Amino acid sequence: MNTSLPQERLIAIISFISLSVIRMLPSITSLNINLNNITSHLHSLEIINNYLNLKIIYPKKNLPNKKIRINSLKFKNVFFNYGVDKKNFTMKDINVELSKSDILGVLGKSGSGKTTFADLTLGLLKPSKGNIYINNNQIVDGSFENFDISYVPQSINLVDDNLKENITLGHDFDNNLMNKVISFSDLEEFHKIKQDKSIGEDGSKISGGQKQRIGIARAFYSKPSLLILDEPTSELDYESENKIMKNLQKQNIDIIILIAHRLNTLNICNKLAIFKEGKILDFGLKDQVINNNKELEKYFNSKT
Ligand SMILES: Nc1ncnc2c1ncn2[C@@H]1O[C@H](COP(=O)(O)OP(=O)(O)OP(=O)(O)O)[C@@H](O)[C@H]1O
Ligand SMILES: [Mg+2]
Which residues form the domain of 173? Predict the structure, then answer.
């Protein structure tokens, strides 16, 4: 009779332990999975940690020694579509001829094809029909690399580093050239105050106008033969825009293509192209195009 008591207690204890283990089993399994997860990701964590501790080193551009200057650029019956609709082309029958010293102003409503035209000129997009010629030679895959072409896009990409690194971006540092482009791009004040400070991830610590001026300085720094600027001064005040536009004319750039919504930005141009729904409505010498499209005249020389 005395021996039955410890036995009952033993059964109760064993039952309690078994039940507890059964209840804890899912948590133990989950713990095990998570531990395995952590162990398997340790290597990635180490790589990220090393990366965060690294000073970013930009790859030096290993490009062939100076390239061919651009004397002419020609679009002949160029059509393009983004591959969505094979029948309806985004760009239709584009014909443009530019030669050395030309500054082309590109006008048109939003969605009319201005950036697509820039991307075709840069070789980022390939014509679906028709051809592009530089120096009278038809452009084929890869031949854009023979020329110094710079681009100031609508939205500038910046790295989380200081002004100097954002301007040189892989090119060798040249102090004289750096001072020149800082002055040309109206960045002296910014340079005085913040030259060694980081501008933040994608320029999060600076203004839209400052970002645009860094984009322009970067383009000047690469001393291009063909420069394409897509809405480069849309966030700048009139004075700063005017200064930069005047400086743009003084550069040793063979051909400039300037896309702008504000027509006073285009005062420096000698040619104009008006885009509408993927077509060129009018192209030619500025005075002639303004003459053909009287409604444009009031926008020039005005401080809009
Ligand atoms: N990646 C793309 N895929 C498909 N269609 C596109 C793509 N990019 C632009 N488009 C279309 O191509 C047409 C021309 O666009 P584009 O960006 O060249 O216009 P835009 O004149 O530069 O306009 P904005 O003044 O607003 O910058 C538009 O109808 C646009 O929707
Ligand atoms: Mg655009």
Answer: 72-299
42 and 79 share a domain?
A: no
The neighbour count for residue 234, using CB atoms within 10 Å, is 16
The pTM of the full predicted model, rounded to 2 decimals, is: 0.78
Same domain for 237 and 180, yes or no, is yes
**214 in Cβ contact with 185 (< 8 Å):** yes
Residue-wise pLDDT tens digits, 56-112 = 555 555 555 567 899 999 999 999 999 766 778 999 999 999 999 999 999 999 999
Residue 17, token pair as written in the block: 């332990």
Task: Mark whether 239 and 117 lie in a shared domain.
Answer: yes
Instruction: Classify 102 as helix, strand or coil.
Output: coil
Nearest-CA residue for ligand 1 atom 2 is: 82
Q: Which residues line ligand 1 (CB under 6 A)?
A: 82, 84, 90, 108, 110-116, 154
DSSP letter (8 states) at residue 223 = -
Q: Quick: pLDDT tens for 226-255.
A: 999 998 888 888 888 888 888 888 888 999
Same domain, yes or no: 45 and 113: no
